[in-house]
């Protein structure tokens, strides 16, 4: 967490937990210190859009920024939370951040479902490939026409190995 004031001074405040209580407390503390309207930004990531929604409920402006769209100095490769926070605060004040589109709850749920389905399809394909490599190594070859049919499943169910 970093704060930049209108004069351009940027200060690192440390880390906070991602809970509604901690965010509300932070907003209250910063607002008491400045008394002005606040504007927040953060990198899109594993916390999804919950922080933005919590800040919107507190009547605060917030934008979510794609990490790939954040301008970086050439040769700056070391990433730390502190550096990232300070850089985001500076860039936000300068108006150089490009916010991403934020879906509503229903759209986000559909994206999560689609992502989960694609992950399962990928894992299923991997498992099939591993099984098709494993069985011939142990002397089991399917003589039927096509794999992953009912006949292929019955053949797999009847396989016996020499050792448990």
TrEMBL record:
Transmembrane segments: none annotated. GO terms for molecular function: DNA binding; transposase activity. Pfam families: DEDD_Tnp_IS110. One of its GO terms (biological process) is DNA transposition. InterPro entries: Transp_IS110-like_N, Transpos_IS110. Residues 3-136 form the Transposase IS110-like N-terminal domain. It comes from the Bacteria. This is IS110 family transposase ISSfr2. It comes from Paraburkholderia humisilvae. The lineage of its organism: Bacteria, Pseudomonadati, Pseudomonadota, Betaproteobacteria, Burkholderiales.
């Amino acid at each position: 967490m970093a704060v930049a004031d209108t004069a351009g001074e940027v200060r690192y405040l440390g880390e906070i937990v991602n809970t509604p209580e901690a965010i509300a407390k932070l907003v209250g503390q910063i607002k008491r210190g400045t008394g002005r309207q606040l504007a927040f930004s953060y990198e899109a990531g594993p916390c999804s859009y919950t922080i933005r929604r919590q800040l919107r409920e507190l009547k605060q402006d917030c934008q979510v920024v794609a990490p790939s769209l954040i301008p970086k100095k050439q040769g700056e490769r070391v990433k730390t939370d502190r550096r990232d926070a300070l850089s985001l605060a500076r860039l936000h004040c300068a108006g150089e951040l490009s916010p991403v589109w934020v879906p509503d709850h229903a759209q986000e749920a559909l994206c999560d479902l689609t992502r989960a389905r694609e992950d399962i399809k990928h894992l299923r394909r991997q498992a099939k490939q591993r099984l098709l490599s494993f069985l011939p190594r142990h002397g089991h070859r399917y003589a039927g026409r096509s794999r992953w049919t009912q006949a292929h499943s019955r053949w797999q169910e009847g396989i016996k190995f020499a050792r448990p």
